[in-house]
Structure formats: structure tokens, C-alpha cells
């Protein structure tokens, strides 16, 4: 009888009951481990309480800036694209949405880069600012509205 009690103690310490199934302690430890792992690896969703950035990192924009995707609005509020500053019509150079295709900023974020391409500064750069995506879409909508 003593041998079987010793075997049972060994099995309980190993996390297994004498019937071969997992002990309650092993089940609880496994469940807690899974809970902690899922909480640590879970992607956090934005519930609207996190502070939002009000501007993007500075962007230097020149005629020679490579990898550009420029989006401008025509007089009817339609979007058109160009890959060089020189290809944006003079009548549509302010505002122009700017995406540098090799950067993440300003491409798929709530904020966009918007430039005034009407006149370069003395150093050859154009004025660039951050604008909320909703405001950019509103500008297009204003041009589409009758009487705008």
C-alpha cells in the first residue's frame, strides 16, 4: 500500500492524477497561462479616448523630391494624380495632397500632407502642412456643391 501512495504523490507532483488525467492544478495553471498570453498579444482597438496626433512629421517637398504621388482637385472637385510637381496644373496647385510612396506617414493615417505648390520658397521647398483626411474630403465636396 505504501508503494501506491508514493506513486500517487509522485504523479500529483508531476501534475497528473493516478488515473492519468491532468490534475486540477495543471488545468488552472494552463488556463491562467493562456489567459495571460492572449491578453499580452491582443491588438488594442481604439475606443476614441486615445489622444490623436495633430500633425505629421515635417516633410521637405521640392520639385526634385522622388517617389511622389500628388493628388489635386479640379474645379468640379474631382481627384486627379501626378507623380511630379511640374505635372500639376497651375489652377489646381493649392491645396495638393502629398504622399511620398516610400513613407508610411500621410498615406493611410487620419492625417494627410497637403502642400501649396503655387510658389516655391527661396530654398526651393514648398509649404507643406498636416490636414485631417475628413477636411480634405470636405474640400472636394465643397467644389462639388452647387454655388461653391
Which short descriptors sum up this protein?
148 residues, alpha+beta, five-stranded antiparallel sheet, elongated
Tell me what you see in this structure.
This protein is of the alpha+beta class. It folds into 2 domains: 2-41, no CATH class; 68-144, no CATH class. Helices cover 28% and strands 18% of the residues. The chain is built from 3 helices and 5 strands. It has helices at residues 2-13, 24-41, 133-144; strands at residues 68-73, 79-82, 96-100, 111-116, 127-132. The chain has a 5-stranded antiparallel β-sheet with strand order 2-1-3-4-5. It starts with a helix and ends with a helix. 11% of the residues are buried.
Mean pLDDT, all residues:
82
Task: Give the amount of beta strand, in percent.
Answer: 15-25%
CA-based gyration radius? 30 Å
What is the strand arrangement across the widest sheet?
A: 2-1-3-4-5
Number of helices: 3
Derived from helix and strand composition plus strand pairing, the structural class reads alpha+beta
Uncertain parts: none
Overall helicity: 25-40%
Quaternary structure annotation: single chain
| Number of DSSP-assigned strands | 5
Order of helices and strands: HHEEEEEH
Question: Alpha-carbon distance between the termini?
Answer: 96 Å
Give a short account of the largest sheet. Answer: 5 strands, antiparallel
Overall geometry comes to elongated
Number of domains: 2
Amino acid at each position: 500500500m505504501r508503494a501506491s501512495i508514493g506513486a500517487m504523490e509522485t504523479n500529483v507532483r508531476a501534475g497528473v492524477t493516478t488515473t492519468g488525467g491532468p490534475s486540477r492544478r495543471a488545468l488552472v495553471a494552463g488556463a491562467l497561462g493562456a489567459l495571460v498570453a492572449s491578453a499580452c498579444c491582443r491588438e488594442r482597438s481604439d475606443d476614441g479616448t486615445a489622444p490623436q496626433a495633430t500633425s505629421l512629421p515635417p516633410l521637405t517637398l521640392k520639385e526634385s523630391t522622388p517617389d511622389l504621388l500628388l493628388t489635386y482637385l479640379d474645379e468640379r472637385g474631382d481627384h486627379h494624380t501626378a507623380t511630379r510637381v511640374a505635372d500639376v496644373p497651375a489652377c489646381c496647385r493649392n491645396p495638393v495632397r502629398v504622399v511620398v510612396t516610400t513613407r508610411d506617414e500621410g498615406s493611410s493615417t487620419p492625417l494627410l500632407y497637403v502642400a501649396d505648390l503655387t510658389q516655391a520658397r527661396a530654398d526651393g521647398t514648398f509649404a507643406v502642412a498636416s490636414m485631417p483626411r475628413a477636411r480634405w474630403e470636405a474640400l472636394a465636396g465643397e467644389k462639388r456643391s452647387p454655388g461653391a
